[in-house]
Design goal:
Helix 6 crosses helix 7. By secondary structure, the chain is an alpha/beta fold. Helix 7 links the parallel strand 6 and strand 7. It has 16 helices and 8 strands. Strands 3-4-2-5-1-6-7-8 form an 8-stranded mixed sheet, sandwiched between helices. The longest helix is centred in the middle third of the chain and has 62 residues.
């Protein structure tokens, strides 16, 4: 009992509650402050929080027959996915926990849904995948399993990658789907088998182009699976060396990434490999199946860090987009002011010239000076209106086209980080300027930029500090036994502070 008479919560329970509260505040920050800006300027087709509001996800990729289904089945403790040497399933399958099954009975598939359900149910973060069409929807499905392994995460199994297959054969762009799923996944497993360690064409494209552009390097784990099928230790070393070489060439990394060596002990025993003298090398190797399982179970722990990276990345890109819009609007305003006064001067000069002309014309020169001035004023007004409606409009059109051709001059690109974020939003800025004709409220964009910049600069910093504190405290630290998660971070009240201003 603590001094206030309230029972102290269990340490693990309090830690879980703290993590949940932090995750909730992050999601609220994204939905209330980043999403409105992202949706207004076409940065995202759906609310940003759509991709991060669901449970942690593990994406499993690999060549066909690389053992993805067997690995997943062993993790879950039940045969959920079909297995075989040839391609057995060409669907993307989301495997998640059934929250309604609380009896803890026999592990089984409790529910199955098709792709249309997954793509249209707001509970799931797959609304953006609608763009891949009906053919993809027919190869997308959900399985709910009452396996304890899935209580805090979901697994996404994918069709085996092939060598001679095209978008026309599949009916949808496989790489685009992989990229969208990798972007929302907290961990990506890439499986290879000894027979195709050279990597097939789709795997080559995924590793070289798709994954690097859609996720972070530290979220990808490489697995050489089914090593029990190597004929000898020499054969295994040859396969391992081949895979290392290919990965270094594809990824462009000088250091070879960690490769987990795994195999299914039950499958090896069933096939008699454990008793085969040629497979004696297996006794000298550590089957890293359990290490891989532990890494997958750590996906929920990575979710907060991934959410922080999500806020940092999108905050930075939105800031850069708004910065480009502000820069252009200021230049456009100076252009309009310059030519407004130029037109005003031209109209005054034209009016004055007209007045002098009227005075010199014999029939009109004897008129009342008031009428002469009125006539000159009318001429000046006509010149000014002509300038604003035709001349300046024509010149502004050329001004806009000029800046659309040289967008890179709108913002300083002093380092690689700036260049990377600029590359991500440059085309979007082009579309916004072209569709709006460069006419929008500068004050509104300035206000949005200030809010997003606060979230990126101060909010992301405090997020990292909170995560550092979370990682640094021991489970029995008294800080976990307080009555609340500590001071409310700046970013949790950012909207309120903005309103007060």
């Amino acid at each position: 009992m603590n001094p206030s008479g309230i029972r102290r919560p269990e340490t693990s329970m309090y830690r879980d509650n703290y993590i949940t509260a932090l995750r909730t505040e992050l999601l609220e920050m994204v939905s209330e402050q980043l999403t409105p800006v992202a949706m207004r300027y076409g940065y995202s087709e759906v609310p940003l929080e759509t991709n991060i509001k669901w449970r942690p996800q593990v994406l499993v990729l690999g060549n066909y027959s690389s053992g993805k289904s067997t690995l997943i089945n062993e993790f879950l403790g039940i045969t959920v996915q079909g297995t075989g040497q040839a391609p057995t399933d060409d669907s993307f399958t989301v495997i998640t926990f059934d929250e309604n099954e609380t009896d803890g009975g026999t592990i089984r598939v409790t529910d199955q849904r098709d792709g249309k359900f997954l793509l249209n149910d707001p509970e799931y973060p797959f609304e953006t995948l609608k763009k891949h069409g009906q053919r993809f929807a027919s190869h997308f499905k959900l399985k709910k399993v009452n396996s304890p392994f899935l209580k805090n995460l979901a697994i996404i199994d994918t069709p085996g990658m092939l060598d001679s297959i095209s978008e026309r054969d599949r009916g949808y762009n496989y790489q685009d789907v992989i990229g969208d799923l990798a972007q929302i996944a907290d961990l990506v497993l890439v499986l290879f088998d000894p027979h195709k360690a050279g990597t097939v064409r789709e795997a080559h494209t995924s590793l070289r182009d798709t994954l690097p552009s859609k996720t972070f390097e530290d979220r990808v784990l490489y697995v050489l699976n089914r090593i029990d099928e190597c004929s000898s230790m020499t054969d295994l070393l040859r396969v391992y060396g081949t895979l290392c070489w290919n990965l270094s060439q594809i990824t462009g990394r000088k250091d070879i990434p960690m490769i987990h060596l795994t195999y299914s002990a039950s499958a090896a025993e069933k096939n008699g490999r454990t008793e085969d003298p040629q497979a004696a090398y297996l006794h000298y190797l550590e089957n890293q199946r359990e290490d891989l399982k532990k890494a997958v179970l750590q996906a929920p722990c990575h979710r907060l860090d991934n959410l922080a990276a999500f806020v940092e990345t999108h905050g930075e890109r939105l800031c850069h987009l708004l910065e480009g819009m502000i820069s252009y609007r200021r230049k456009a305003r100076m252009f309009r002011l310059k030519f407004f006064f130029t037109g005003l001067l031209a109209s005054l000069v034209g009016g004055a010239a007209g007045w002098m002309g009227l005075m010199m014309l014999p029939p009109i020169g004897g008129l009342d000076p008031t009428l002469q001035i009125a006539g000159a004023g009318l001429l000046g007004t006509v010149i000014f209106i002509f300038w604003l409606t035709l001349v300046q409009k024509f010149l502004y059109s050329r001004f806009l086209k000029k800046w659309l051709r040289q967008l890179d001059k709108l913002t300083p690109l002093s380092n690689q980080t700036r260049r990377d974020s600029w590359a991500a939003i440059r085309d979007l800025l082009y579309v916004n300027l072209k569709e709006s004709n460069g006419s929008y409220s500068l004050s509104q964009v300035l206000g949005e930029h200030a809010t997003v910049k606060q979230i990126h600069d101060r909010g992301s910093k405090e997020i990292r500090e909170a995560l550092k504190e979370l990682a640094g405290l021991a489970p029995d630290d008294d800080a976990w036994l307080g009555q609340g998660p500590g001071p409310v971070p700046y970013w949790a009240n950012a909207e309120r502070k903005t309103d007060e201003k």
